[in-house]
């Protein structure tokens, strides 16, 4: 075990992936010599050479198009998009191409090896274009997997699993806690399962569900609630697509209440999908409406980002409201 | 930095037509080789193989358009007039080079040996279609023949080809990737990303643009203002050549040379084949709304198949009797295969949910089960699948 | 009044919009001389000249980028994307640019005049790439309006309102019924309100909600249900963003049941957002879980598209299931 | 079709370096005009106005980076070394021409008269910021000065500029649009769509590329393989010119000529200004990780402000005393304005939801009301807004 922050855990996972399979290739804007603007790919070019870790020109649609082709050829590309806010020029290559590659060819061809890493989320004074959480935009796309880790240990195991998963995976990294989240991480190679939520804490009165950096807020809110005698079950969804409805439904059947939180705007956010599914599966068990605590239905602001974000206090209030419905 | 040394003191603009790239041509329409022209090495067998593929393609296109008109097929798309390009480029490659095409390159598949049955299975989306009846007719693909399954969104295959070729370079297998696209598709952002990345990363890829004058109804004069597509290569520091796309010998030779640059020097190359889309864009289109017959006739006179035939005749490698026999045979083959393909069973209901992922996730399996239960209840409403809902 | 099909109604709306405001400009792939591959812009170049109706090069991101600039300048661009399946290369210009233009500039600049028209939906043997219903991909984007008409009369009035609305509007046209849907359409200039759902039929037992071409299926299903004594309230949502939660909630409070249908895949579809909102607003009124009847969670197939689509029979079964919960 | 007449019979490839566009330069570093060089018409007043804007920009950049280092500002981005480009191009325009820039063009705003207070209000996101505190520092905009609000996603403004210019052409107002972008941004697909559309549709737009050698850490050798950006214009049939971006006279003259082509002939033009990003990419960046000091020093010796100063001195339009006074004044101005801007109230809570649409829809109004109620409950947790929650 070693103490690592989330960035180091990601760097470590990439290092292990590249060492254990010479088909793994990392690239993106500034990922070469410089090691990426957040330094997630530090030293990889030094270790594995320019052919396997390199800068690309500044063209996201080209990067993902190139990655799709490389994956189709049998390589294992790990492409970085510098900020999740800049993934949209590659939307077509992800949604129309990567996601449909295997299906449309009847499994003649696939982009099994593809992983796309990108930092997401707010709380860093980034304004409209360095703060977005676009996971829901992709979650409407059969054929993709979507993963979001909450801490260094999770990040390493989930990233290694994503790189090796035989499907294209979008890996969203919570950049606000890149350095702030520190923890013990096994030094060896390990994987954590995709498509499975994790119950972090059992509880009786309400289920709290989130992913990524938002888990921190959820856990803080749960502490506040516990002090008022509300017993919270806390779940990290971890995979947005396919998502683990069974674990969530089992929890809600027990607690009778569900609160879901994400930073992205409410309307069309992934909490909506979860709420829709769970109200159907747990209809007779629900004691109060499923509650969503999210960003506002606006672009991401700068000066008032604290006001915009679903923090632990807003969550705490929503917990009380749900329990006192 | 070299560029810092080149200085001028007058504000002279480089004109938009500073580069005027000529068309490389070998054959005249009468089949004679232009004196002094550089011709590819082609022996009789290969020449006949090329010709055969060109004629097959023409026959297939004619018959299948007719089949579409008769309502036997939902959609078809001909390549009439461009067979010299689509067959000629494939003939210049190693058969294991990857081809990532647009949709009008059935000639290349024919050259590589995609059988008439394979064509038909895709066109009719039956149980033998590699694509499992998911894509519209003409979205062929073959893993065995190194031919990437066609995808409708235009130009997406161009950066993918750069990536594929990068993988080939790393694998060190001395193969290249050829991506084919129209002059219309060359307007997409993906084209730009692809050529620039390929040039910077030095990958063995050939970008083959079929400049056939139209993108559906849009003439190339409303598609770009410059001297076609080839000069763009200079903007990426990439080599390029323009070739007469109706001249199979020129296409073949240009592609052989391009392949050498790609495979031996990891140099990407842009090749622009000048031709004309003689038929409608597809069976859904009617060109009389946007162009005149005189223009079509001018190009019909440049028929690439006739040009090659004339050359073969001049070589004494071909005669009219064999021509007649070939045409008859091919037409028969196509009709017979069509009949068979149409009679085959349709795709399996299960294949609605396979290949979305490597394994169907739980939710998809549930969705299939509900669907099956529903079809069992209303079998008459789902004639294609009702019969197979409980087996297969 | 004149009898028109849906395409003619759209052509007529564009004609009126161009005649009444010379700032209205129509462009896109093949929209010039040819009048568009579906002929929605027929004769407009003839009438208004090449400067106001023209072909563009084949580049969706360029078309919408160009349209954004033109709108910022004060013109009223009506850009066509040939198929909704091909809108994704323009995703960045729509989601990061058009939607955020006014907000990020503090209202110094806007793209008020922008309208994007595009044919969507399946049922035409189009397979993966001529069948998609991507409305939900955009519905997660504050700043956009999204409109889907169900018939010629609606199409004309909603398109005229969209063109004149001072916000960027995405206008999805149900291409399956372009020619099949025929009806009486007023010849004069008129607008129908954006952001308002329409109750087509009142009923007591269940609320059926859809939009666009799917309304036909919903109405058929309602007929079947009525025969079995189930009284259906039928609502056309018309605007996906902002959507009219008040009308839907009022209906559900009355009927106690809700079924929502769209062609797009279930997961992340807009029915999820509606279900999440309505379960919250109508919690104590719901007599059965909110039901979603949608496309499968796969890309759009070809041969088995009938099996894939949520047709009137699937809807009818779901209605019965909801009522007999 | 002219192109059909140009024929060759040998498969000769056009090399990737077929076009070598020279750099137009007027001024030497010592301020002397190169003999025979074509210079722009500039009278003393305009020359001094340009110089003033350049020096102001440098002072602003220095002070604000320092402020960022002191933690007074979350972010800053300097334009050091590129002031001749960013001020020089603006000086060649009509003040009502639209500018759609990338983010490093504060020089153009300064030239147009954006006041130091206006700069500060944006940088500190206070109640006077036109952008209402929504975007990061340096995302300036001014409707009055025809300067489009900066947007972070790169290259998106390039096709927008083509569209804006099309609207100007239709309006017949004899104005053009100038869009500025880096050589990195020129790799984006939007660049390609924009230039091609502008060329086909003949719009009065000038594409000004600042080729400053780097895109964050990526050197231009890993950004493109060709001879920079200017030769790409030929691929679109568009005129182009390359200019020394550290030479304000050359930039100004080239842009004056480009503007004529745009406005008088509706010809889009590509202008490439060769320069160097002397500072870090932004306050978040440290270039020591990817380039060496020797390279920076080489370029520091080509300081564009010093070059212009030397010319002004040679013209007898400037002296050291005035230089000193100007610097002192500007520094004072900047510091004073910073202090004021920092002290101003912050943005209104209501502005969280305005401008998403022309009017906030019902759901947004509800969201604001809930937020207000929440802040009233926990005022200490929301210090920026708690005070204003019930008024303003
Ligand atoms: C991204 C995208 N936009 C639009 C279309 C619709 N479309 C299909 S073919 C075509 C024209 C293509 O022209 P070109 O590339 O010149 O090829 P050609 O048909 O001439 O062979 C268009 C616009 C598409 N398939 N994909
Ligand atoms: C679409 C997009 N991708 C990535 C970024 C992150 N980014 C900001 S600036 C920059 C480099 C830009 O370089 P260049 O265009 O040369 O301009 P310069 O900074 O040199 O002035 C990058 C990659 C972005 N803002 N937008
Ligand atoms: Mg074409
Ligand atoms: Mg740069």
Note down, in words, how this protein is organized:
The complex is a heterotetramer, with 2 copies of chain A (325 residues) and 2 copies of chain B (392 residues). By secondary structure, chain A is an alpha/beta fold. Chain A folds into 2 domains: 2-185, Thiamin diphosphate (ThDP)-binding fold, Pyr/PP domains (Rossmann fold), CATH 3.40.50.970; 198-323, Rossmann fold, CATH 3.40.50. Helices cover 36% and strands 20% of the residues of chain A. In chain A, β2, α2 (44-48) and β3 form a beta-alpha-beta unit. Chain B has 392 residues and is α/β, with parallel strands linked by helices. Chain B folds into 2 domains: 19-343, Thiamin diphosphate (ThDP)-binding fold, Pyr/PP domains (Rossmann fold); 349-386, no CATH class. In chain B, the strands form 2 sheets. Chain B has a 6-stranded parallel sheet with strand order 2-8-9-5-4-3, sandwiched between helices. Chain B is globular. The chains are: A alpha/beta (325), B alpha/beta (392). Chains in contact: A-B, A-C, A-D, B-C, B-D, C-D. At the B-C interface, α12 of B face α3, α11 and α12 of C. β1 of chain B pairs parallel with β2 (23-24) of chain D, so a sheet runs across the interface. One thiamine diphosphate (TPP) sits between chains B (104, 152-154, 181-185, 210, 212, 214-216, 277, 281) and C (29, 58, 60, 82, 86, 89).
